[in-house]
Amino acid sequence: MRRIVIVGAGLAGLRAGQELRERGFDGELSIVGDEHHLPYNRPPLSEQVRAGDMEPHECEFSRDDVDASWMLGRPATELDTGRRIVRLADDTELRYDGLVIATGRRAREWPELTAMDGFHVLRGLDDAIRLREAVASKPRVVIIGAGFIGREVAATLRKRGLEEVTLVDVASHPMPVLGPVIGERAARLHTDQGVGLYCGTKVERFEGADHVEAVHLTDGTRLPADVVLIALGSVANTEWLRDSDLELREGNVLCDERCFALGHDDIVAAGDVATWPHPRADGPIRVEHWTNAAEMGRRAAANLLDPAAAVAYVPVPTFWSDQYDAKIKSVGLFGRSERVSIIEEDLDTGCLVVEGHLATTWLGRSPSTRTSRSPPTNGN
């Protein structure tokens, strides 16, 4: 194997490149990215960068971390597995002996959004910069989606002194993937800090001419707004694979337990764009967290170099989230729990520890929420 192409210049792609070089691959290595930025750390985008505590360049990793040909701002547009070619937007053709797919995901946008200013998403570095500029004058902000990104942004805005910050979600509580026990306490965390919270309702329409002025909900509520953040999850960056013979599931690259794209021993996928079988789950899973992108990028690259000795990727998923003075941590596949048990709760300190279970199987410990001002030791 003399030519390896990594499509995706995010954390998973960067770690894959590092692993290849550390394992002695001395051939031609190309890293393709659709953004002009070097690989950068995403967790600070919803907090430190958005708040102005960190400048964009401080999030970037050094290209010197990997000896490679960096092709930034040149997205992949097509994959020909028969000829082993990746075609880029400028019609460059990259031939490969091995391919790593790590194109990640982008923010899901509002369908058929009205043509007016004031709307934002948050997934990439440029998104964070635009949002930071938009809220500099302390406008009224409505956040549609009370998942992790929406909640982190709400917390950051309130800590920065914005008076009117509102969260809206169709679910009955914030962080719906973690269930009502965690969600109800998450709701209190935000309302205690002055965030408006509207759950169990939908957006009916947006009001405004050239710029958004208000959000109308189906329960009849009118929320004045100067800035609207759409935080409704993400979609896979795999349009360039649609005419290939790779199997996609909900847009994600379907892999075997060793990170190989099904039916291919020369293509692996890693990070947010990969779906693979996990022995603790009843079907393929996808994990959108910092630690998984880093670890899966390395495992996929190692397996690509030596398919005969490939090792199954069986992680214990972890993530963290900082909101106000609370540090929320999770270990395991908690979102698949059928029931939960409160192991510890202290109303004075804000400590909460919850375990999730199937009928006969322990799936992991839920976000352990503790009052803390200590910085995170790894990413979410």
Task: Explain what you see.
The structure is a single chain. With about 375 residues, the chain is α/β, with parallel strands linked by helices. It folds into three domains: about 5-105 and about 235-310, FAD/NAD(P)-binding domain; about 110-230, FAD/NAD(P)-binding domain; about 320-370, FAD/NAD-linked reductase, C-terminal dimerisation domain (Enolase-like, domain 1). About 20% of the residues lie in helices and about 30% in strands. It has six helices and 28 strands. It has helices spanning about 10-20, 50, 125-135, 150-160, 180-190, 290-305; strands spanning about 5, 30-35, 70, 75-80, 85-90, 95, 100, 105, 120, 140-145, 165-170, 195-200, 205-210, 210-215, 220-225, 225-230, 235, 250, 250-255, 265-270, 275, 285, 320-325, 325-330, 340-345, 350-355, 360-365, 370. Strand 5 (about 85-90) and strand 6 form a beta hairpin. Helix 1 runs parallel beside helix 6. The model is unreliable at about 370-380 (pLDDT under 50).
